[in-house]
Amino acid sequence: xxxxxxxxxxxxxxxxxxxxxxxxxxxxxxxxxxxxxxxxxxxxxxxxxxxxxxxxxxxxxxxxxxxxxxxxxxxxxxxxxxxxxxxxxxxxxxxxxxxxxxxxxxxxxxxxxxxxxxxxxxxxxxxxxxxxxxxxxxxxxxxxxxxxxxxxxxxxxxxxxxxxxxxxxxxxxxxxxxxxxxxxxxxxxxxxxxxxxxxxxxxxxxxxxxxxxxxxxxxxxxxxxxxxxxxxxxxxxxxxxxxxxxxxxxxxxxxxxxxxxxxxxxxxxxxxxxxxxxxxxxxxxxxxxxxxxxxxxxxxxxxxxxxxxx
Length: 310
What we know:
- This protein is α/β, with parallel strands linked by helices.
- It has 2 domains: 3-121 and 200-307, 3-Layer(aba) Sandwich (Malonyl-Coenzyme A Acyl Carrier Protein, domain 2), CATH 3.40.366.10; 127-190, Malonyl-CoA ACP transacylase, ACP-binding (Alpha-Beta Plaits, 2-Layer Sandwich).
- Helices cover 46% and strands 15% of the residues.
- The chain is built from 13 helices and 10 strands.
- It has helices at 24-37, 41-47, 50-53, 56-77, 91-98, 104-121, 137-145, 170-179, 203-213, 237-247, 254-263, 277-285, 297-307; strands at 3-7, 84-87, 127-133, 153-160, 163-169, 187-190, 225-226, 252-253, 268-271, 291-293.
- The strands form 2 sheets. The chain has a 5-stranded parallel beta sheet, sandwiched between helices. Strands 6-3-5-4-8 form a 5-stranded mixed beta sheet.
- Residues 6-306 form the Malonyl-CoA:ACP transacylase (MAT) domain.
- GO terms for molecular function: [acyl-carrier-protein] S-malonyltransferase activity.
- It catalyses: holo-[ACP] + malonyl-CoA = malonyl-[ACP] + CoA.
- This is Malonyl CoA-acyl carrier protein transacylase.
């Protein structure tokens, strides 16, 4: 059976994540990441504290390591190569490591830098993100375009039909919170995100990230990795570098990505990392494609049984 792998991004982290996964790759990979980074990533994941794990420059390498740990455990137990893979935002880096495009050590240091650049790009308290439910993608785009001020307000994550996250400056987000429901939104909720990801406020950070990317070896992926930018795979290393740069200040087109995975023949999807966020979105975008969260042994067993791979 053809299947896709999905790698989660920021927001899926929690202290103790993957503790219910008995695979030895979990501890081994987190230990390896600690040695590469020079700080105790394993201890942070196991014991916290929460506020430290939730610091962007800590969250990003911790989630990347968690995704790679699950991938290593999965690839030991499942010989079938995925038909394609994708990662949500930060998860795109985990997907590229799994496909052999990025070296694990390079990717860890890269996403640590990515987190630092993102935090530095927008002063604390001046930007953020708001989740909107109940509006179509084009309605969200029109709503942002209707903002009468001169602050940034842009769609950032097209997560599923009727679920879009908007990023921007605080003044514009305050306007959105007041005006979204009169325009038809069922819910408008400010997220606990200090960084307005995937909008033009991060263009400068993206250029700095690209400078570092130019110094890192990037290989052609062993299997297709669909990029957030346009749900298209890339083979050329420079094209992959450019996609990772642009991803930082342009929206995550997750709905389109899931639709492309299904169109490419995926008959099931496995979420390769902590949490069940992407499994839930899969059900909203492609309800007839079974989705399995590989965050624990039960999820592994269910996925392997469904794929006929155990």
